UniProtKB/TrEMBL annotation:
<dbReference type="InterPro" id="IPR028939">
    <property type="entry name" value="P5C_Rdtase_cat_N"/>
</dbReference>
<dbReference type="Pfam" id="PF03807">
    <property type="entry name" value="F420_oxidored"/>
</dbReference>
<dbReference type="InterPro" id="IPR008927">
    <property type="entry name" value="6-PGluconate_DH-like_C_sf"/>
</dbReference>
<dbReference type="GO" id="GO:0004735">
    <property type="term" value="F:pyrroline-5-carboxylate reductase activity"/>
</dbReference>
<dbReference type="InterPro" id="IPR036291">
    <property type="entry name" value="NAD(P)-bd_dom_sf"/>
</dbReference>
<keyword id="KW-0560">Oxidoreductase</keyword>
<feature type="domain" description="Pyrroline-5-carboxylate reductase dimerisation">
    <location>
        <begin position="165"/>
        <end position="269"/>
    </location>
</feature>
<comment type="pathway">
    <text>Amino-acid biosynthesis; L-proline biosynthesis; L-proline from L-glutamate 5-semialdehyde: step 1/1.</text>
</comment>
<keyword id="KW-0521">NADP</keyword>
<dbReference type="GO" id="GO:0005737">
    <property type="term" value="C:cytoplasm"/>
</dbReference>
<feature type="domain" description="Pyrroline-5-carboxylate reductase catalytic N-terminal">
    <location>
        <begin position="11"/>
        <end position="102"/>
    </location>
</feature>
<dbReference type="InterPro" id="IPR053790">
    <property type="entry name" value="P5CR-like_CS"/>
</dbReference>
<comment type="function">
    <text>Catalyzes the reduction of 1-pyrroline-5-carboxylate (PCA) to L-proline.</text>
</comment>
<dbReference type="InterPro" id="IPR000304">
    <property type="entry name" value="Pyrroline-COOH_reductase"/>
</dbReference>
<protein>
    <recommendedName>
        <fullName>Pyrroline-5-carboxylate reductase</fullName>
        <ecNumber>1.5.1.2</ecNumber>
    </recommendedName>
</protein>
<dbReference type="GO" id="GO:0055129">
    <property type="term" value="P:L-proline biosynthetic process"/>
</dbReference>
<keyword id="KW-0963">Cytoplasm</keyword>
C-alpha cells in the first residue's frame, strides 16, 4: 500500500457497491491503485475489483491492514461487528471513516480501537460523481482528518457536514435512501406513459429528462419548490388534475411518513447491530 499526499494509505473493509463507487471516483481523480487495499471475502466481487481497478484485495483481515492511515467501513450494518473483530488488531491508530447506515461513532470507536471516527452517508449517484453525502466528525477528529474525509468523498459529488450525529439518521432517510424514491416515481411515470400509448423507451426518456430538469430548476431557482410547482399548475388544467389526484390519495403525507420510517430504521440498525 503506497500513500497519496492527501489520503495516505487507505483500507476498505467491504468492497461492494458503495466502496466501488468511492474507489472508482478516487481512481478517476488520479489516485494510484497502490494507495488502496480492500478486504472482500466474496471471491467473485474480489476478482471484479482486481480486474476493474487493479486493486490489492484480501479475502480476510491481516497484517497488510496495519499500514493504513484511513480505514473505510463499507460492509452492511448487520455484518459490522463480525467484520470488525479480525480487523481490530491492525487498525487502532487509523482514522475510521464509515459509510454504514445507523452504526454510531461510539460503536465504531469501540470495535476499531480508534476514537477518530467520521461517519458519512453517501448515495448511489456517487457512481457517476453526482452523489450527495452527509458527514459527521466525532470530537477526536482533527481539522486535517476532516479534510482527508472530504478528499476521500469529493470525487463522488457534493458534501454536507452536520454537527449532531443524530442528524445522520435524517440524512440517511432523505439523501441516502432518497434516490430510490425518485426511481420509484420514474417507474410509476414510465408505467403511466406506456399505458397512455408511448413506447417504454419514449416514456423513460420523458420521465428522466423531466426529473433532471425539475431538480436543476429547483437547485438554480430562488423560489421554493412549492412556488415552482404552482407555476406549472394552470387553473383548471392538466397539472391540477394530477396533483388533486395525488393529494386525494394522501401522497405527500405518505412520502413524509416513508422518510420518517427510514430514519427510524437507521436508528434501529444502530441499536441492533452497533453493539460489541
Ligand atoms: N447502497 C446504497 O445506496 C448505500 C449504502 N450505504 C451503506 O454502505 C454499506 C455497504 O452497502 P453496499 O455497498 O450497498 O453493500 P454491498 O453488499 O454491495 O457491499 C458490502 C460488501 O461487504 C462484503 N463483506 C461481507 N462481510 C465482510 C467482512 N467480514 N469483511 C469484509 N467485507 C465483507 C460483502 O460481501 P458478501 O456479499 O459476500 O457478504 C459485500 O461485497 C452499508 O453499510 C450501507 O448501509 C450507504 C449509503 C447508500
Ligand atoms: O437501504 C439502506 O439501508 C442503505 C442505506 C441508505 C441507502 N441504502
Amino acid at each position: 500500500m503506497n500513500a497519496t499526499p492527501t489520503l495516505g494509505r487507505t483500507a476498505f473493509i467491504g468492497g461492494g457497491n458503495m466502496a466501488s463507487a468511492v474507489i472508482g471516483g478516487l481512481l478517476r481523480a488520479g489516485a494510484p491503485a497502490e494507495a488502496f487495499v480492500v478486504v472482500e471475502p466474496w471471491a467473485e466481487q474480489a476478482a471484479r475489483l482486481r480486474q476493474q481497478f487493479g486493486l490489492t484485495v484480501l479475502d480476510a483481515a491481516g497484517p497488510a491492514l496495519s499500514g493504513a492511515d484511513t480505514v473505510v467501513w463499507a460492509v452492511k450494518p448487520q455484518l459490522f461487528t463480525e467484520a470488525a473483530a479480525p480487523c481490530a488488531p491492525f487498525i487502532g491508530s487509523a482514522l475510521q471513516i464509515s459509510v454504514m447506515a445507523g452504526i454510531r461513532s461510539e460503536a465504531i470507536a469501540r470495535a476499531s480501537g480508534s476514537a477518530q471516527v467520521v461517519r458519512c452517508m453517501p448515495n448511489t449517484p456517487a457512481l457517476i460523481g453526482q452523489g450527495m453525502t452527509g458527514l459527521h466528525a466525532s470530537a477526536a477528529v482533527s481539522a486535517a482528518q476532516r479534510q482527508r474525509a472530504e478528499a476521500l468523498l469529493a470525487p463522488t459529488g457534493r458534501l454536507l457536514w452536520v454537527d449532531a450525529e443524530r442528524d445522520l439518521d435524517a440524512v440517511t432517510a432523505l439523501s441516502g435512501s432518497g434516490p430510490a424514491y425518485f426511481f420509484y416515481l420514474i417507474e410509476a411515470m414510465v408505467q403511466a406513459g406506456t399505458e397512455l400509448g408511448l413506447s417504454p423507451a419514449q416514456a423513460r426518456t420523458l420521465a428522466e429528462g423531466t426529473a433532471a430538469g425539475a431538480a436543476a430548476l429547483s437547485a438554480q431557482s430562488e423560489d421554493s419548490p412549492e412556488l415552482l410547482r404552482q407555476r406549472v399548475t394552470s387553473k383548471g388544467g392538466t397539472t391540477h388534475a394530477a396533483i388533486s389526484t395525488m393529494e386525494a390519495a394522501g401522497m405527500k403525507a405518505t412520502v413524509v411518513a416513508a422518510v420518517h420510517a427510514a430514519a427510524r430504521r437507521a436508528a434501529e440498525l444502530g441499536d441492533e447491530f452497533g453493539r460489541a
